[in-house]
Sequence to fold (159 residues):
Amino acid sequence: MLAACGGSSKPAPATTPPPAAPAPTPTTTEAPPAEAAPQNDAVAQAKLAEQYDLGKKIYVEKKCASCHGDHGEGNPKNPAVIGANAFPEQPPAGAKLRTTPFHTAADVLAFVKAKMPIKQPGTLTDDEAAAVTSWMLSESKVAIDHKLTAANAASVKLR
Fold:
């Protein structure tokens, strides 16, 4: 009876257990929590709205309306900066200031930064130029879904 329970045999020599297998590396990246994307979108939209409001304010303060009209509609001497006719791809015939095409928001932003306001060209800060450009383009139905900067303006296509 003792033999059946192992009482008469020697105990097995002690062995070290094998090392634990490393945890498997996941093959897919986990998605962020569901609320992260909407929160980031909300932050981006809030920053864009803030920039839009600043652009509108700058348009008034820098007296852009004196050349381009209260609503950016332009006139026979000065181009529209808001609306379907604003920012044509090629400079209008006889344009005195604009000599380059406008393909993206970066093109418009560079022009605004360098040439506006007409009586004090180059005096807008980077933030002011981006804000007024963002406002004019948004009012002209150009799809902008994030705060406009010199670094990301080339990603915003005008057409």
Notes: Residues 42-155 form a domain with the Cytochrome Bc1 Complex; Chain D, domain 2 fold (CATH 1.10.760.10). The helical segments are 2-5, 36-61, 65-68, 105-115, 126-139.
